């Protein structure tokens, strides 16, 4: 009986470590995707031909060995699985952390450090649904002055039409700020989970990398929509 009781904390610790590794690994998958996606979005700064050529290239990579959009289908499947794993691990760990016994100081300190990750992550999840519906699944324009197949079936035209609408751009800006905060902490946390912060130097380096990735992402993603909103890109 004592053996069974004493084994429970050890099992719980192993499960918690496994969940943290799952969240770190899936998080790094998304970091890689976000950087690649940012690179593609920046093509808009070079005009319609550059952006649309890149968008079409993504659909034809690997032809004829792969079908049209073949690589995208594989990428989307990996991202969906990663998203499910990341969300499951995150909410399970947050639930366990909330149930754990702590001093009042520890509880307040942890809450202040993780609350914005929790709610920021939830906001990002909702934004992801909106973003995919708008630009990938349904492909609709929120710009009443620019509608129809010529906009919906032209990636560059849809991008420009969408970010000419201030409220839509504001949602995007808020999402990118939330993403930057999420990445800043997430990259550092993943480094800790994977054992890459064992010394003071590597600890500081992981912090710096997290801040750098966040800064690059927020600037890179906001350049095209803000350039569109202020009429630099038309």
From TrEMBL:
Listed InterPro entries: Cytochrome_b-558, SQR/QFR_C/D
GO cellular component terms given for this protein: membrane
Segments passing through the bilayer: 21-40, 71-94, 115-133, 169-188, 208-233
Keywords of the record: Membrane, Transmembrane, Transmembrane helix
Name of the protein: Succinate dehydrogenase / fumarate reductase cytochrome b subunit
Organism expressing this protein natively: Phycicoccus duodecadis
């Amino acid at each position: 009986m004592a053996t069974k009781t004493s084994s429970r904390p050890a099992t719980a610790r192993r499960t918690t470590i496994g969940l943290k590794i799952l969240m770190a690994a899936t998080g790094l998958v998304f970091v890689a995707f976000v950087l690649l996606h940012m690179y593609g979005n920046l093509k808009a700064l070079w005009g319609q031909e550059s952006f649309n050529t890149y968008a079409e290239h993504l659909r034809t990579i690997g032809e004829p060995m792969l079908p049209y959009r073949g690589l995208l289908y594989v990428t989307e499947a990996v991202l969906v699985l990663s998203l499910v794993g990341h969300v499951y691990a995150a909410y399970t760990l947050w639930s366990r952390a909330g149930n754990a016994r702590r001093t009042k100081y520890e509880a307040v300190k942890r809450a202040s450090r993780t609350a914005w990750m929790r709610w920021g992550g939830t906001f990002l999840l909702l934004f992801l649904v909106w973003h995919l519906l708008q630009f990938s699944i349904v492909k609709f324009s929120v710009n009443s002055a620019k509608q129809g197949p010529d906009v919906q079936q032209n990636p560059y035209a849809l991008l420009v039409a969408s970010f000419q609408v201030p409220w839509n751009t504001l949602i995007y800006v808020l999402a990118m700020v939330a993403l930057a905060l999420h990445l800043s902490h997430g990259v550092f946390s993943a480094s800790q989970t994977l054992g890459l912060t064992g010394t003071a130097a590597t600890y500081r380096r992981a912090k710096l990398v997290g801040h750098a990735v966040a800064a690059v992402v927020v600037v890179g993603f906001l350049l095209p929509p803000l350039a569109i909103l202020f009429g630099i890109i038309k």
